[in-house]
Amino acid sequence: MELNPQKQQMADESMVRNLAAQVEAIWPQERELLARHRLPEDVAILDAGCGTGEATGRLADLFPRSTVLGVDVLEAHLDLARRRHAALGDRVRFEAGSIFELRLPDHTFDLVACRHVLQSIPRPERALAELVRVTKPGGRLHLIAEDYGMIHFAGSRLGADAFWAEGPASFGARTGTDMRIGRSTFGLLRALGLGSLTIDYVVVDTLRVPRGTFAAIWEAWRDGYTDVLAAHSRFTREEVLAHFEEQLAILRDPDGYAVWLVPVVGAVVG
């Protein structure tokens, strides 16, 4: 089975824009959830599937005496991450590696973060088991597990609810991925024997997030995923584009409202 079926989309320049916009939208609320754990400042952190390092540097800033390792499969993203965070020196490192087979010792990290990855890969239970393996006893998992059934637009004439219910589900079925992994992660972690689970939600909406930032996520999705959504769903390319353009118009309209609920799943490793 192909373990990275969205590699082409992840490597596209639109993904760089997407990662930057997503962290701007999500981090202000996410950092409060992390701070709630009251972890010491000198923790060892793994950012698994770190992409361009957008969150890696923010984790290093949040925990000023921490050491942070970012791991990703895309060398181009890692090169960009290294350039962006060179000023942090040896405290932040980036290495090539697969979330399915981390070349790291057992029980190494106090905090293991995995953001915006689980919905893009098959066999998420295997990846989660690997994340648990490298977490110290008493350490924490911090997972942003996207769920495209938690996107809602008011006033959509084209039927945004049906688009987000059907399009990603069809795409996921064709690629062996779960585009609603946010609601499934609790059960996967329980099956691994984990307790002390928490599920919170970052609310990305047109009240909490600047409209331009919210729209930048949708623009990147439009540019990176229109063709594959059309290829793997009942929607034609023209219909996919029409949905994205209508939703972008709602996001930009001062009277428009939209919300994306982003599950943030936490667990203590025993």
Structure description:
Strands 1, 2, 3, 4, 5, 6, 7 and 8 form an eight-stranded mixed β-sheet that branches. α3 (54-62) links the parallel β1 and β2. This protein starts with 6 loop residues before the first helix and ends with a strand. The chain is built from nine helices and eight strands. The protein is globular and about 50 Å long. The chain has helices at residues 7-11, 13-35, 54-62, 75-84, 124-133, 160-175, 181-191, 211-231, 237-252, and strands spanning 44-48, 67-72, 92-96, 109-115, 135-144, 151-153, 195-205, 258-268. By secondary structure, it is α/β, with parallel strands linked by helices.
Number of strands: 8
* Helical run tally: 9
**Beta-strand residue percentage:** 15-25%
Instruction: Name the helix and strand elements from N-terminus to C-terminus, one letter apiece.
Output: HHEHEHEEHEEHHEHHE
End-to-end separation in angstroms reads 31 Å
> Rg, please?
18 Å
Name the assembly state.
single chain
| Morphology | globular
Summarize the structure.
The protein is α/β, with parallel strands linked by helices.
Search tags:
single chain; 270 residues; alpha/beta; 45% helix
Summarize the topology:
Blueprint: H1 7-11, H2 13-35, E1 44-48, H3 54-62, E2 67-72, H4 75-84, E3 92-96, E4 109-115, H5 124-133, E5 135-144, E6 151-153, H6 160-175, H7 181-191, E7 195-205, H8 211-231, H9 237-252, E8 258-268
Parallel strand pairs: 1-2, 1-4, 2-3, 4-5
Antiparallel strand pairs: 5-8, 6-8, 7-8
Helix pairs in contact: 2-3, 2-8, 6-8, 8-9
